């Protein structure tokens, strides 16, 4: 049985509403992945905030957190692409 998201996305892949929904789901998923990688307490130091044009914006509070995100970038991107497809996110932008 198909999920509601997959049914709707099959119909309106290019619509602005679907792109926004995919971006919101991607940010939520990225925050879960970051929490699994760095621990639940990391939410105050590392937080995904947006997706735009295939770029995931990640806010960090320290340079050491930025280094850890960059070191694990390929793992984060591969987990996101396994959930939402190859074109969902292809790069991470660190925001200090």
Please outline the helices and strands.
Elements (H helix, E strand, L loop, with lengths): L3 H8 L4 H23 L7 E7 L2 E6 L2 H9 L1 H12 L6 E5 L1
Helix pairs in contact: 2-4
Structure description:
The protein is α+β, with helices and mostly antiparallel strands. 54% of the residues lie in helices and 19% in strands. It is built from 4 helices and 3 strands; from the N terminus they run H-H-E-E-H-H-E. The protein has helices at residues 4-11, 16-38, 63-71, 73-84; strands at 46-52, 55-60, 91-95. It has a 3-stranded mixed beta sheet with strand order 1-2-3. Strand 1 (46-52) and strand 2 form a beta hairpin. The longest helix is centred in the first third of the chain and has 23 residues, at 16-38. It starts with a helix and ends with a strand. The model has no long low-confidence stretch (mean pLDDT 86).
Strand tally: 3
N- and C-termini, Cα separation: 42 Å
Q: State the helix count.
A: 4
| Outline | elongated
Helix-and-strand structural type? alpha+beta
In which order are the strands of the major sheet placed?
1-2-3
Sheet-strand content, in percent, reads 15-25%
Please estimate the helix content: 40-55%
- Residue-averaged pLDDT, rounded? 86
Q: Write down the Rg.
A: 14 Å
- Which stretches are low in confidence, meaning pLDDT under 50 for 5 or more residues running? none
Major beta-sheet overview:
3 strands, mixed
Sequence of secondary-structure elements: HHEEHHE
């Amino acid at each position: 049985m198909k999920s509601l998201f997959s049914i709707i996305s099959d119909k309106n892949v290019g619509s602005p509403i679907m792109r926004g929904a995919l971006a919101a789901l991607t940010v939520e998923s990225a925050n879960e992945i970051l929490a699994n990688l760095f621990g639940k307490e990391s939410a105050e130091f590392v937080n995904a905030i947006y997706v735009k044009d295939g770029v995931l914006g990640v806010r960090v509070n320290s340079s050491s957190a930025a280094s850890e995100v960059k070191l694990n970038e390929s793992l984060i991107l591969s987990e996101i692409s396994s959930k939402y497809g190859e074109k969902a996110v292809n790069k991470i932008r660190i925001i200090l």
